[in-house]
């Protein structure tokens, strides 16, 4: 079948058969479909959408474009995936918490995208940690430690790598079926049995409107379940930074403090436990979300999750005593200075995306795909909504490499915070989407 006929069919709004989708994706993977044809296909899907069955077909075809892992482990194989935000370092805590509860977590994470941070960039701030260890070591660490967080390998869902690269430069990223197939093809290729999606919504998320986040969450849940992967989704708040830290080494430091029970943060804990509880119930490890929450909190409070995190870091090449003295391994920025609001008062609103842009200004994120990241820089002690900012309480500490980037980031931070009236506290979990 000619690729142009598949594109024409989609352009005219016809539902593609799974055979047509498979052939197109196989041509995309082996290079016989040209870049222009892939771009035209992406744009046709962007405008005409896809039915749930079509999106399942696309996801499976992309999964099957490379290696599909299988696992033979004594417990369930699970994962969490977030659509991205600011101060969202939950994977670093949740993976070992789940492993401490008897799950296996082969987590394939991404780099920062747009204004949001990426788990891999955070882990790269740990000296020696290998985020591209090859599939054999990935399997070994998952089996022996219970969790391994690494980056996308060339073998898993290569069709997504090519399609994503073309979408990125043809204004076709923001298509619900294409995002769905992109995320889920990689998750299915990792051989997962249970998945929870953290779909963020608000000023720091890709989906700033609740309806868009709901549509994406519903699509992810229905396509994942249609493709045989048991999945639920939580829509969570990204109208303020999740953790009070944004920046790579700073977020790792926060994760270690959290796993040591030295840092207690209600929003981080509530979100981490709620996501983990979805998986423990789905995998049959807990009878209810309440019972699952208790198990996860025990894993945290007993230090079991901390120990697993330490073993994962060491097994993937990081320092053996990392958790004992993370500050001596993680680079700190030379300038660490407070930024105060111009007026005293309660934080009513935060333009959270601008905080992500401030991290990029500091060098902690990328402007171009090949930019090098400065892991030491970022924002710490970020105030959340309803906190009082005054002469003694800065909006945050800016961790900068030099004066010029400090000034640019400080201006963005000041503008991002709106002082006003106290608002009722909202739970960080807005909605639960199930099949
Ligand atoms: N993350 C992905 O992996 N793919 C998308 O299309 C968007 C976000």
The first-to-last residue Cα distance is 34 Å
The topology string of helices and strands comes to: HHHHEHEHHEHHEHEHHHHHEEHEEEHEE
Which stretches of 5+ consecutive residues score pLDDT under 50?
A: none
CATH architecture descriptor text of the largest domain: 3-Layer(aba) Sandwich
| Radius of gyration using CA atoms only | 21 Å
The figure for the number of domains is: 3
Helix-and-strand structural type? alpha/beta
Tally of strands: 12
Mean of all residue-level pLDDT scores: 95
Q: What is the CATH topology of the largest domain?
A: Pyrimidine Nucleoside Phosphorylase, Chain A, domain 2
Largest sheet: 4 strands, mixed
Q: What is the molecular shape?
A: globular
Strand content: 5-15%
CATH class of the largest domain: Alpha Beta
Strand ordering within the main sheet: 1-4-5-12
Helix content bin: 40-55%
Can you identify the CATH superfamily of the largest domain? Nucleoside phosphorylase/phosphoribosyltransferase catalytic domain
Number of helices: 17
Attached small molecules: uracil
What brief labels describe this structure?
14% strand; Transferase, Pyrimidine Nucleoside Phosphorylase, Chain A, domain 3; Pyrimidine Nucleoside Phosphorylase, Chain A, domain 2; binds uracil; 4-stranded mixed beta sheet; 435 residues; alpha/beta; 3 domains; globular; 12 strands; Aldehyde Oxidoreductase, domain 3; 3-stranded antiparallel beta sheet
């Amino acid at each position: 079948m000619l690729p142009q006929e598949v594109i024409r069919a989609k352009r005219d709004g016809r539902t593609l058969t799974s055979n047509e989708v498979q052939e197109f994706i196989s041509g995309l993977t082996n290079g016989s479909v040209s870049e222009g044809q892939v771009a035209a296909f992406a744009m046709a899907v962007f405008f005409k959408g896809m039915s749930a069955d079509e999106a399942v077909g696309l996801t499976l075809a992309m999964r099957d474009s490379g290696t599909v892992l299988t696992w033979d482990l004594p417990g369930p194989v699970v994962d969490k995936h977030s659509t991205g935000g600011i101060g969202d370092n939950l994977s670093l805590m949740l993976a070992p918490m789940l492993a401490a509860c008897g799950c296996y977590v082969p987590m394939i994470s991404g780099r920062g995208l747009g204004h949001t941070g990426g788990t891999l960039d955070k882990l790269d701030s740990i000296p020696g940690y290998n985020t591209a260890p090859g599939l054999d070591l990935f399997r070994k660490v998952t089996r022996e430690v219970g969790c391994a967080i690494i980056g996308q390998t060339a073998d898993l869902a290569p069709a997504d790598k090519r399609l994503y690269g073309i979408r990125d430069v043809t204004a076709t990223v923001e298509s619900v079926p294409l995002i769905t197939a992109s995320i889920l093809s990689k998750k299915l290729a990792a051989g997962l049995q249970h998945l929870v999606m953290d779909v963020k919504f608000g000023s720091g998320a890709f989906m700033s409107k609740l309806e868009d986040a709901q549509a994406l969450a519903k699509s992810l849940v229905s396509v994942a379940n249609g493709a045989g992967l048991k999945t639920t989704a939580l829509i969570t708040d990204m109208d303020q930074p999740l953790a009070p830290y944004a920046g790579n080494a700073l977020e790792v430091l926060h994760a270690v403090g959290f796993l040591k029970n030295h840092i207690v943060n209600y929003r981080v804990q509530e979100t981490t436990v709620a996501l983990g509880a979805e998986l423990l119930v789905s995998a049959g490890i807990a009878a209810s979300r309440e019972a699952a929450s208790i198990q996860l909190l025990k894993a945290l409070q007993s230090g079991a999750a901390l120990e697993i995190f330490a073993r994962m870091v060491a097994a993937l090449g990081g320092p053996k005593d990392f958790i004992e003295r993370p500050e001596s391994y993680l680079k700190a920025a030379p300038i660490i200075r407070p930024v105060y609001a111009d007026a005293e008062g309660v934080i009513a609103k935060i333009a959270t995306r601008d905080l992500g842009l401030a991290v990029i200004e500091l060098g902690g994120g990328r402007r171009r795909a090949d930019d090098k990241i400065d892991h030491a820089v970022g924002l710490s002690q970020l105030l959340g909504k309803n906190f009082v900012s005054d002469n003694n309480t800065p909006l945050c500490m800016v961790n900068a490499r030099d004066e010029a980037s400090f000034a640019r980031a400080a201006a963005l931070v000041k503008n991002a915070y709106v002082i006003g009236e106290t608002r009722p506290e909202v739970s960080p979990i807005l909605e639960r989407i199930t099949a």
